[in-house]
Design goal:
Shape: globular
CATH architecture: Alpha-Beta Complex
CATH class: Alpha Beta
Strand order of the largest sheet: 2-1-4-9-6-11-8-7
CATH topology: Spore Coat Polysaccharide Biosynthesis Protein SpsA, Chain A
Radius of gyration: 20 Å
Structural class: alpha/beta
Number of domains: 1
Largest sheet: 8 strands, mixed
Distance between the termini: 35 Å
Helix content: 40-55%
Strand content: 15-25%
Number of helices: 9
């Protein structure tokens, strides 16, 4: 049963200045045309954002670190995607809006939902980064807020890696966290954004998704999935790094669950004292 629609909180009703940017490579004409065709009746303005095809000047690519962290070097397309998102976050800092909705050009958008989301002041809700789509299912989620915007959507918190940077909303504060954390490139951008245990930014998502990815091959290509033999001199560091990353992820999840339970118990205690 669908929960009844409730009036939005004051934070949700707060007028937010929102810009929608769609990352697109200049030579990806067919993708741009498909997106424009689907968005021709969009109820709010949006604009294409020129994608990077090489490493952003503010970034440093650590290839040895990538092999240790990911088990392989990153491809040129991955560096371009990483740089594109990094540039978007930089531009948000100097823009006169409060938040961006960032889309890649191979998505299908529920524009009615996005029109409502654009009016929500996420920072006032304590949310600085909010996914609108991800590609890999996670077994561990926690309900954060029901009836977000309408009676059909909720906000959930994700634990672990879910991949995909194709659609999300981000505030200036959220972008600053990623800008500080992501300067050294050792993983694909979506991997790095998922690493809450490393940068401290909560991995929240709208569910059900208001944005979906197109079927078809990624513009990055499939070469990144080809077998790569980790050099012998890095093999031990790679194995240790994998174990350490899992330990950090799992330890963070345990601590976060403990804090959530503790917060609920304290709220119940205060409620009981008030009633008494």
């Amino acid at each position: 049963m669908t929960p009844p629609t409730t009036s939005r909180s004051k934070a949700e009703r707060g007028e937010a200045r929102t810009k929608i940017v769609v990352i697109n490579m200049m030579d990806a004409v067919e993708r741009r045309d498909r997106f424009e065709k689907r968005a021709r009746h969009a109820p709010l303005p949006w604009s294409f954002y020129p994608a990077h095809t090489s490493l952003h000047a503010a970034l440093t690519y650590d290839e040895q670190g990538a092999i240790i962290a990911k088990g392989r070097p990153l491809r040129a397309g991955e560096l371009g995607v990483y740089s594109s998102h990094y540039a978007v976050w930089q531009d948000l800092q100097s823009d006169d809006v409060d938040q961006y909705v960032v889309l890649e050009d191979d998505v299908i958008v529920d524009w009615n939902f996005l029109g409502k989301l654009a009016q929500v002041n996420l920072a006032k809700m304590g949310i600085n980064y909010l996914r609108l789509y991800y590609t890999y299912p996670t077994r561990r989620t926690a309900l954060v807020k029901q009836n977000f915007i309408d009676g059909k959507h909720s906000i959930v918190e994700l634990h672990g890696t879910v991949f995909g940077a194709m659609a999300y909303a981000i505030t200036k504060a959220g972008a600053r966290i990623f800008l500080d954390h992501c300067r050294i490139v050792r993983r694909p951008i979506d991997d790095e954004m998922d690493r809450t245990w490393a940068h401290g930014q909560r991995n929240l998502s709208v569910f059900p998704f208001p944005v979906l990815g197109e079927s078809g091959e990624s513009i990055i290509g499939v070469a990144r999935f080809e077998a790569f033999v980790v050099p012998r001199k890095l093999r031990f560091k790679w194995l240790v790094a994998r174990r350490l990353e899992r330990w950090r992820r799992d330890a963070w999840a345990v601590m976060h669950r403990f804090q959530r339970v503790r917060t609920r118990l304290m709220a119940r205690t205060r409620s009981g004292e008030t009633d008494g």
